[in-house]
Design brief:
Helix content: 40-55%
Order of helices and strands: EHHHEHH
Distance between the termini: 16 Å
Strand content: under 5%
Oligomer: single chain
Number of strands: 2
Length: 106
């Protein structure tokens, strides 16, 4: 049972919502994925940081959070101008969701 330390109030009725976020660990996992290599293997040196890093055209997405994978995909798909194929965006969403599920286990 979760309780506020200062009031001893029962918080078991509350739902905790974890927000989805693209972070450096997820981008590291993406660059090593089969999907990434299928699309960017030929172009030596291209990494997710080229798109989502500090100077990348989709950098703003690393500062955003989502409450669902569907919401995240909607933003990712709207920003296809960055040159990232849909299967790579789908893999990114999967990795973010898996990371979120793993953090709930801790």
């Amino acid at each position: 049972m979760a309780k506020f330390i200062w009031s001893n109030e029962d918080l078991s009725h509350l739902t905790i919502i974890r927000k989805l976020r693209i972070d450096s660990q997820v981008l590291s996992e993406l660059v090593n994925s089969r999907v990434w290599k299928d699309y960017f293997e030929v172009e030596i040196g291209i990494t997710p940081n080229d798109f989502f890093g500090e100077d990348g055209p989709l950098n703003w997405l690393t500062h955003k959070t989502w409450i669902s994978v569907e919401d995240m995909k909607a933003d990712l798909y709207q920003n296809m101008g960055g040159g990232i194929p849909i299967p790579v965006l789908d893999e990114l969403a999967i990795l973010v969701a898996k990371r979120n599920l793993n953090s709930e286990d801790n």
